[in-house]
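Need tokens for this chain, all 391 residues.
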Amino acid sequence: MSGREFMILVKVTAVLLAVQAISGCSERSDGNSDEPISVGNVLRDDPAQAYTRVDEPREFIFPADHGPHNEYRTEWWYFTGNINDGRDHHFGYQLTFFRFRPKADETRGPSRWRPEQFYMAHFALTDINNEKIHTFERFSRGAAGLAGANSGKLQVWLDDWSAAATSRETFPLRIRAREDRIALDLTLQQGKAVVLHGEDGVSVKNDEPGNASYYYSYTRMPTEGRVGVGGETYMVSGNSWMDREWSSSALGREQLGWDWFALQLSNEHELMYYRFRRKDDAVDRFSYGAVVLPNGRVDTLDFDQVELEVLDTWASPASGVVYPSAWRLRVPEHGLDISIRPVVAGQELDLSFRYWEGAVEFEGSFGASDVDGRGYVELTGYSTTSAPRSG
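Here are the structure tokens for all 391 residues:
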């Protein structure tokens, strides 16, 4: 994502593989996985007979839709952001909660340890000054208070990692996580109005009926709070981005992976763009983008309105996977032309499955004006034999 399209299906499938190891309380992992899960194999599973599908628009109702939608196969609450201490220390972060509903025959039984939902969470903090990323992962059953999400409001947790409204309203929203002397405790304001992606919040993934998701975002959330790294505490502020999506979708047979961009521009615009990469090297026509204007109005972008050129690559010393590591992104109809680069090249997450997600910075032009900013990028479906592509 997870932004995120089908990434949720990969990530939460890891839950099923980990559940067998759960002995009655939540388990944690430092991410040293010997055999990462294959994106393609997981996402080509067909869940059509077991789960509710996204097949028509719906009315979004808030705060109710911040809560879980348990009849769908997968769902996530996804937070990323760039924050700093106002002086010289900068951080990027990701905190994500995933809900997964297995098939009914996998959860039958009288025990309270056989819930209908499983949860997984990822926590990553990029210490930009020290060029280091800290990554963590947790799994749990959605039972006995170990993990879950509240209906009718924004409250989701896994053990003591959480995202929750601090009052009867959704905002301010507080997110917290702590692991191995790395800690995050942030308060997020709403900022701009909610953005519904696709057509009225329905994001179509491919030609197969029902392969779609309900998808919305908050694209510029003023943020402040504390970050802890190795015993040092930093008072920080900046901006965050929240993605919410639920579906029962499957990856198309020709869709190999995706590159997802969430960018906050200095001129108070935001850009979200995901590009599906195909096996035949073509840009998939279900790729999608959105430009959010300062007043909150949204201009959607079709796959052929965005030009993305790979300028550089980075090879992971841990996995050998080669990822794109610099881009030129152009949206001619908006006069946008920017060069994007990671703030730290090595932001690969080697958890239950392997992917790259991290903080980026960019600069360029927007019409006749200069523009810069920061954001987040996610790269999935790359391997030691796949090559980054332009298109």
